[in-house]
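### Sample
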Amino acid sequence: MHVREKLMLSGVRCVLNVTRGIIKLRSLKVSEQVLNKLHVKGVFQIHFRFLQTFLVIQSRQSFTLMSDLETPPPPPPVQTGEKRVCPEDVEQDFPLKKPRTEADHDNGAAPSRDEEASCLPEEEASEGEEEEDGDTFADMMKHGLTETDVGILKFVSDHEGFSGILKERYSDFVVHEINKQGKTVHLDDISVPADTEEVQREEHQPKEIDDVLTEEQKQQLGDLQLYKNKEGHVSIQVMDDTKEKRTLIHKAVKTQFPGLETKTEEKDGCKFIVAYHVAGKKALAAPRKHFWPKNRGSYCHFVLYKENKDTMDAINVLSKFLRLRPNMFSYMGTKDKRAITVQEIAVLKITAERLAHLNKCLLNLKVGNFSYKNHPLKLGELQGNHFTVIIRNISGTGEQVHQAMTSLKQTGFINYYGMQRFGTTAVPTQHVGRAILRNNWNEVVDLILKPRPGAEKEYLVRCREEWAKTQDPEAALKKLPNKRCLEGQLLRGLSMYGRKNIVTAFGLIPRNNRLMYIHSYQSFVWNTMVSRRIEAFGLKAVGGDLVLRGTTAHVLSAEEAEQHSIHDIVMPLPGFDVIYPTHHIGEGYRELLSVDGLDIDNMRHKVKDYSLSGAYRRIIIRPTDVSWEVIHYDDPRISLVHTDFEKLEKKPAPVFNTEGKYRALRMEFSLPPSTYATMAIREILKLDTSIKKQTQLNTLWFN
């Protein structure tokens, strides 16, 4: 039967559901008269932007998915690392176990609820192809938070804002860590450093050791060392059977191939030296101490370059290939996923050679700049981060851009906690934190597990519905394909300890995730009170404000205030070990917490982990190393930043066309730790940075 007749008789079932990567089919009755006109429109939401696509059912023998352009665009260029994929790395089937450490994101964010607690690992998408459910995403995000919901209300400058697209491509957001010595970290060397002890040993070892093994035997031993030998051992026959000859072979194997052990066996009257991994596959992952040179530092420090992966995912990939636990790695801060980031990592007793070997097979990762040191890295040791940010399709004039960037450079921006601190669902994380601080554990469980409107994975929706219907943790847990998410951990705790011991059940959630909730509440209070402080006193220091003298807060008198600027002023996060401003904003803290059922004079909790000591945070941050330029380009798919990887590959820098039809703002600046780059960009554009607001704006723009 002709394809067209089949379509007329049976119809076409088709609808796009891009968020979950599922194509569902829906019946459509197609008549011959309208066959050539039928199209199904889908909208793909890609991190604050939408692409319109049409399903065109052709009148002849097939139907084709095309964009509404005259010709479909070519596929995006191959991203960094794609040509270096190892087959076993593609599926990413390793468990996502994150080190239990306090995270400090590259722009100051604590891990968001969505980053820390997704039940399944995200599928990696190529740049520009991260998709959401276009038909429903805008409606679902109606229930999300806006900046006003979390106390973000004020700007420091009065310049006119303008529109632009942030992170249209992940390569539009590049972050370089600034280490504790104040040096910006770059990946510019992937060579393996010479090992002093190895060099000395090679110089002084007898020449006979070099000559005792044939090239074929060396190849076999090298394969065995890297687990490429399926038999699991290599046998070397001793032709001149003397003790001295056997000793030379033993020494040659052990010195030239660390991680291998040898033994002597006799077969059919002949002596063989058998080389093998002393502890099976664990030997290479955890070398015995005497294999590690004494004068070499215990930690291999290296630079990690990553694209479109968060730090935890990258470390899990390295852990998988090196057969290590993730907590063998240390770092100074975690970096965003949707970005290109460069940071320093340290790992215990893994050689630079083994790490460098991974460059042949890692996807969107590169390691280099190796060195050996005697200490790991610690969270918070960094001095900050240097950002290179591209904002595409800007509407502002040259004068508007100049005013905005000059204000950022000279005055700075309000040091608000950004939107990622508060989650993206209809239940803000600060509400859970408030319930924890009030010791209302039934409310904590209800807030985390109850059904909610908004964008969530289907299995989470089913889990929440089951919990609401049955209040049975085991039944709800069965709806989750993976039990490691927050909801899964809590349900597992409830099934083990019951509703009468919620504190213990809640303790099954990793500590960092639990603390995320109460820190979110602190952040909400800080944002709210800083907005009130700016509203009341503007951008000048006044009597009653706080400044830091060393690590101690000091209340300014009216006379002292005249000697200080707004850049010196700090505001407290609520806790038992801080003081508050003595003007009416200080009293506002007490009133706000009282409304939430909390006593500002009693911030110690029955559970020690949830006692808040408080901290101080500067009101205004002034970036350093600020520079910018407006660039023109013709191809929206090209990268506008020359990355470290491209420099290593000796690829040319992007070329800008002064007559190009597209305009973008390219800016660079450095920020201290625990500050949010998105809040700096908010000050420039004068736009609400929440997903909810950006979705609404983009929906209007594309319609």
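The mean pLDDT is 77. This sample (Pseudouridylate synthase 7 homolog) is used throughout the tutorial notebook.
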